[in-house]
Amino acid sequence: LLQSQFAWMSYVSMVAIFLFVIFFEVGPGPIPWFIVAELFSQGPRPAAITIAGFCNWTCNFIVGMCFQYIADLCGPYVFVIFAALLLAFFLFAYFKVPETKGKSFEEIAAAFRRKKHSAIRGAKAMTELEDLRGSEEA
């Protein structure tokens, strides 16, 4: 947006792109590769890495094929979309991905089971509570 007014703004744009790539590669970029190794034991790990890699490269392909169209639609604000997605992925990783430092696969699996069972129990409790309310009204 400002490149027509300031000649040096093209350098700022290049530096911003390099910083974006650096922060992506240090932050959420390697998640499909290292989180699979952390969450899966030796047996299912190759299949999980294959699926994670497929999803990663498919998304990269889609972004590469659609970027020009998105840039034409959004103009100089095209990276706002990527910044918003990066924020959403950060929040997902912060709230949903368990801490695996110093834990065995069994401990990690047990943490997932606890979350799953507590979510199921919470849904059942809500359903039972709704049933109780319904029977009181009748």
From TrEMBL:
Protein topology in the membrane: Multi-pass membrane protein
Classification via Pfam families: Sugar_tr
GO BP: any one term: D-glucose import
Transmembrane segments: 6-26, 47-71, 77-95
Compartmental location: Membrane
GO molecular function, one term: D-glucose transmembrane transporter activity
Keywords in alphabetical order: Membrane, Transmembrane, Transmembrane helix
Alphabetized Gene3D superfamilies for the sequence: MFS general substrate transporter like domains
InterPro entries: GLUT (IPR045263), MFS_dom (IPR020846), MFS_sugar_transport-like (IPR005828), MFS_trans_sf (IPR036259), Sugar/inositol_transpt (IPR003663)
PROSITE patterns per the UniProt record, alphabetical: MFS
Keyword Transmembrane carried by entry: yes
Protein's UniProt keywords contain Membrane: yes
Occurrences of domain Major facilitator superfamily (MFS) profile (ranges): 1-101
Cellular component aspect of the GO annotation: brush border; plasma membrane
PANTHER family, sorted: SOLUTE CARRIER FAMILY 2, SOLUTE CARRIER FAMILY 2, FACILITATED GLUCOSE TRANSPORTER MEMBER 2
Protein name, per record: GTR2 protein
